[in-house]
Amino acid sequence: MLDATRSGTATAAPPAAATELAVPASRLPRAGFAGRCARALAHPYARLSLLLVLLAGAAASVLVFQPQRLLTHGWPPQLGGAAAAAVFGVAYGLCTVAFVPRPLLNLAAGALFGSQLGLATSLAGTVLGAGVAFGLGRVLGQDALRPLLRGRWLKAADGQLSRHGFRSMLAARLFPGVPFWAANYCAAVSRMGWWPFLLATAVGSIPNTAAYAVAGARASAPTSPAFLIAMAGIAVPALLGAVVAWRKRHHLRGR
Predict the structure, then answer these.
(1) Could you read off the pLDDT of 8-50 as tens digits, one per residue?
(2) Membrane topology per the record (predicted)?
(3) Is residue 2's pLDDT more than 50?
(4) Which ranges constitute the DSSP H helices of the chain?
(5) Whole-angstrom Cα distance, residue 234 to residue 110?
(6) Which of 23-32, 70-79, 244-253 has the highest mean pLDDT?
(7) By three-state DSSP, how is residue 116 classified?
(8) Do 167 and 227 meet the contact criterion of CB atoms below 8 Å apart?
(9) Gap between the Cα atoms of 103 and 221, Å rounded
């Protein structure tokens, strides 16, 4: 009896073991399109390629929709008040990601909403657009681009942005010669934190944004003191920026 029992147990064991092995195998997820995309995006250069595709698509959409027509055609009549300002702020942020120049958007904001609301809407759109660009660059581009920071100047710029994030970004926003999109993606590749980047963007963008918003609001009266002061607020920082850039270039050539 013992031998028979042991023999029966021995012969019954393999099917049980086979069943135990078959159950987990049946529960394994099948490799589908989502799984292949996840594995592809795990590579840094695949994410960088996706970023370039997104930016190219955004730039192409700007060419199709032509947001600069806001300056000539105005805002859709069915939108007004706070709803129009909110929609414009979101559109402003998306347009900056698509490389639309901020001066054009600031002029449109002033012309559509006046000086004060135009300034508030432009600043909100500026911070939104900077945050979107920073997030895209940080998630999709940082891992692929950081190993390329090998030159002396690139390492110095990366160290400055990483160690002194708020101060560096504040200077970049105040300096009119630094493109908005370039500052966003350079900061994203560095190790700058989110809050210093967004706070410096908001504070540093106030003077230039205010000047363009007032100019857009008073464009119908080009001889008014407010318009002339706004134009001076645009021209003087640009001239100072050009002089500083020329002196730095001359200094580097002299080395």
Answers:
(1) 444 445 554 444 444 444 444 455 766 666 776 667 778 888 8
(2) Multi-pass membrane protein
(3) no
(4) 2-27, 33-41, 44-65, 70-73, 81-97, 102-113, 115-136, 142-145, 152-163, 165-174, 180-189, 194-204, 206-217, 225-253
(5) 14
(6) 70-79
(7) helix
(8) no
(9) 19
CB contact at 8 A, 156 and 207: no
- Give the model's pLDDT for residue 244: 66
- Global pTM reads 0.75
CB 200 within 8 A of CB 166: yes
Please name which of 183, 190, 188 lies closest in space to residue 208, comparing C-alpha atoms.
183
**Long-range contacts at 83-88 (CB < 8 A, ≥ 24 apart):** 84/112, 84/113, 85/113, 85/117, 85/120, 85/121, 88/112, 88/113, 88/121, 88/125
- Write the DSSP symbol of residue 29: P
* Structure token pair of residue 132: 């979107």
Q: Which residue has the tokens 């347009």?
A: 95
- The closest of 95, 33, 32, 86 to 63, measured between CA atoms, is 95
Q: Distance between CA atoms of 3 and 8, rounded to whole angstroms?
A: 8
Rg (Cα) of the chain, in Å, rounded? 28
Render 37-91 in DSSP notation, one character per residue: HHHHHTSHHHHHHHHHHHHHHHHHHHHHH-GGGHHHH-S-TT--HHHHHHHHHHH
The encoded tokens of residue 95 equal: 């347009």
